[in-house]
Amino acid sequence: MSNKTFTMVKPHAVADNNIGGIIQMIETAGFRIVAMKKVLLTSENAGKFYEVHKERPFYAELCETMSAGPIIPMILEKENAVADFRALIGSTDPADAAEGTIRKKYAKSKGENAVHGSDSDENAQIESSFFFSGIEQF
Ligand code: RTP
Ligand code: MG
């Protein structure tokens, strides 16, 4: 089991000045930020990142939503990082997200759900490599 995961603060949360609030929840939960930057994706690059979802009905909407403004991609470190981070962010749909989760506090809808969180160690590695070369990580 890896001790790293990958996350992005989504455009609406950046636009609403919630980067700090979200990072505070992440750090309070015991995650260490290994790498972080601010990036504006083109719709095409969002499409590459979310290629696994390309057959799903929400794919076009997802690519537009994720390229609507800058995002904050981060690599996070903690024991059991992937599973613990999925628990911290809560359900995809904020209507189902538990109290105390990031999505309960900051998500507006299924599409504008504040943050991304990798769903496996393998995807955490692939997604981290999409944004970071390796030299930033310490
Ligand atoms: P994420 O990948 O962003 O951490 O979210 P997730 O695992 O909870 O959800 P996933 O099934 O991987 O879907 C990726 C993102 O697509 C958007 N989505 N929209 N309109 C819809 O029905 C719908 N379903 C999913 C969400 O923004 C979700 O985070
Ligand atoms: Mg996912």
From TrEMBL:
Pfam families: NDK
UniProt binding sites for ATP: K10, F58, R86, T92, R103, N113
Cofactor(s) it depends on: Mg(2+)
InterPro entries per UniProt: NDK-like_dom, NDK-like_dom_sf, Nucleoside_diP_kinase
Active site per UniProt: H116
Gene Ontology molecular function terms on file: ATP binding; metal ion binding; nucleoside diphosphate kinase activity
The EC number(s) this enzyme carries: 2.7.4.6
Annotated ranges, domain Nucleoside diphosphate kinase-like: 2-136
Sorted UniProt keywords: ATP-binding, Kinase, Magnesium, Metal-binding, Nucleotide metabolism, Nucleotide-binding, Phosphoprotein, Transferase
GO biological process, one term: CTP biosynthetic process
Protein name: nucleoside-diphosphate kinase
Species of provenance: Arcticibacterium luteifluviistationis
